[in-house]
Each structure stands twice: as structure tokens, then as C-alpha cells.
Amino acid sequence: MPFGCLALRDGRTYDSISDVTDKYEFGQVLRAKEFCELCLAKDRQRDKVFFCKKFLKKDGRKVRKAAKNEIMILKLLNHPNILQLIDTFETRKEYFIFQDLATGGDVFDWILDQGNYTERDASNVIRQVLEAVAYLHSLNIVHRNLKGDPPADGRLGREKGEGGGQVEERRGEERRGEERRGEERREERREERRGEERRGEERKP
């Protein structure tokens, strides 16, 4: 039996929580979702920050199924435009999934910051996304959550198995709430930019 692991009566071997905390230092919690908690975690040896999802087994069978399904699918994937699986742990109480951290921000925010977006820019992002989608389809995996604000680096982070097992599910109300908040944030950015343009026009002789 590996050092630091626990064997239960059913014969399964589990990681201990110290296996996780000895390797990773947990940082900022990004948000809590219906099925999991999303946070940052730094690899202590490599001094590199990753993205971590923590699923609590006590939250029910649906949560346990979602975690196991996500781990199963992510282990199949190896593509430069898909956030890579780095590490997984299963303790008696939790599942931990560590992935690459996408730091590019949303495409929409990037466009607003740049002030313009050329056809070449758009085609480059769409090409990366479609290459990732084609790769998923070659493995009979359907994403089913593509939307207008993927990371600006074009990588995908959520996948879903074709057989109906959802990797990352969200209640309709939670999704609509996130979309409303996202649209409000975008409208604020648009208004700020319109204000800047108006002030620029007023300063012209």
C-alpha cells in the first residue's frame, strides 16, 4: 500500500488529505458552485499555480458521479487547446482535480481592453476553439457548454461525455444568474467606453 494512503473495508485505497496538502498549497477561492469549489493551488515543489476543483462526497451521489466522470474524461484528453489534467486525488471525503490555469481572461473583456478586434484575431480564436471541439468529437465527447466568453487563449475547460454523464452541471437558475451578471458587467464596460469616446469627441477642437 502506498505511503499515506488509507485502505477501507471495501478494499479500496484512498489518498489522505496530507497527500494533497503536502504537494499543493491552497490559495484564493474563485467561487463555489453547485457541485464543487473552485480555487487556486500552488505546487510546492515547482512553485507553479494551478486550477483546483474540490468535490465533497457528502453532497450526494450526483456530485460523486460528476467528479468521477470528469476525471475519467480528462484522463483521455491531451490537446494544446484544452486545459490539461495535472493531478487527481480521492480521499475518504473529497475528490480533488488539478488542471492548467487559464490566465487570459474572457475574449469579450480582451476585446474591450484592446479597443478593436480584427477579422484575423477572431479567426485565430475560432480556429483554436474548433480544433479543440473536433478533437473532442473524435473521442465521442461533446462539450455542450460553448458560449461567447471562453478564455482569451482559446482553450476549453469544460467537457461532457456523450453518454449523458455530465462533467460539470449547473442549475438553470444559477446559469441564468451568471449570464445576467456577465451581461451587466459587459454593459458597464460598454458604457465606460462610450463615455470615453464622448469625452474624446468633446475635447476635439
UniProtKB/TrEMBL annotation:
Q: Which Pfam families match?
A: Pkinase (PF00069)
The taxonomic lineage of its organism, from the top, reads: Eukaryota, Metazoa, Chordata, Craniata, Vertebrata
Specify where the region named Disordered lies, as residue ranges: 146-205
State the InterPro entries in the record: Kinase-like_dom_sf, Prot_kinase_dom
Where's the Protein kinase domain?
24-205
Q: What is this protein called?
A: CaM kinase-like vesicle-associated protein
Report keywords, A-Z. Kinase, Transferase
Organism in which the protein naturally occurs: Takifugu flavidus
Instruction: Output one GO MF annotation.
Output: ATP binding
